User: Fold this.
Amino acid sequence: MPTTLLTDASRRLEKAARYAPISDDATERLKFPKASLKVAIPVRMDNGSLRVFEGYRVRYDDTRGPTKGGIRFHPNVSLDEVQSLAFWMTFKCAAVNLPFGGAKGGITLNPKELSKFELERLSRGYIDAIAQSIGPDLDIPAPDVYTNAMIMGWMMDQYSIIQGKRSPAVITGKPVSMGGSLGRNTATGTGAFHVLQTILAKENKNPEDLTVAVQGFGNAGSVIANLLFQAGYKVVAVSDSKGGIYSEQGLNIPDVQKFKEEQHEMQAVYCQDTVCSIVEHDNITNEELLTLDVDILIPAALENQITAENADSIKAKYIFEVANGPVTADADAILEEKGISLFPDILVNAGGVMVSHFEWVQNRSGLYWTLKEVNDRLRSRITEETETIWHLSQKHNNSEHGASKHSGSKQKISFRTAAYIHALSRLGEALDDRGTRAYYNS
Ligand code: NAD
Assistant:
């Protein structure tokens, strides 16, 4: 069988299932998405012509609640990619104990080629096509790569028109004026920052002594880069789809962001009031950024960035996966061998879906929270789950509890496997409580 993204993702499940208290029935069930929808979306373009786009919505598993996951607009979107992203959402929601299953959606296109009017017609057309399989108690989309609050607002509005009633809880990541939550736009990067701080505090690391490279300067990457800069880390490199910038002295991240927002260009700059001047730096490719000699590497762009081909060249000591699936299963083994500590997407970027859950709760209760309430809850919940997974990995690696339930042999487990065991225990319990072979055998 050719290696698809989904089969690669499933290897994490199989590895963790050796150690988790989960039945073979439940493991088998989790290897397959519950439902995969492929749709055609006809869109009238501004010049009067008709273009038909292909879109997907995959609901992976709903054992623990309605399914939840973002919508991606990108030229590489495929059914395989959407299925694997939905798989990761299932484990992410379980890892941080949200009452949701996993889903994902996407449309194959380069959104930069469409006008705003065309994008709106496409977004509304996508909702027309998938409306029967989403809903506040069924499946709740959110933003992902190249989608944002504006697009979520159009989509929620379209769903409400179809239903004949306002239905804010169908989509999260909306504009605040349409029922969005305060703090949602910064939640993924902020959650990742709390995970990183929790881990590095355990290792007695001092921010001032640590260098960082961030691949991807979008919603998630720019927020964590800013927070790390403010906390005293030396962020030496950042990149976007066009390439990256590197400065040994460290970059002034707020200034880089200001310049990028105004000029749509990534440059190392120093700004005084409204005037920014370019300071000395190197231009680097995304591939070069990944292999920089830094303490912390943060892939925050797309999946499959660190593979068996380049894993051996990675020099960072810590990798925090802010993107979904940036490291393949083959690369995992090489990084482990090299002694690199990796912290997985299903925990590190879970702040986004956590605050999406807060948004859904606020929409359903009609009671809206302050930014402080949102941020305090995010910090305490994600820190608690990080601590739990940390202790679980310590327990496995330092005691006899680590033995595989099948072979009985004792092997060290990675932090990724610990996070999967943690998620699988919750998923397995819910799946088994629906009824398993054991109910009928005894
Ligand atoms: P975004 O669209 O805001 O930003 C994506 C960034 O990646 C942009 O800076 C873009 O220029 C850059 N990029 C695109 N292709 C690249 C390439 N080949 N090499 C380097 N950079 C490239 O997207 P986002 O919401 O920040 O999502 C980034 C990652 O985080 C994705 O993997 C996404 O699934 C994950 N994520 C996002 C959220 C969220 O709430 N936004 C939540 C969880 C996980």
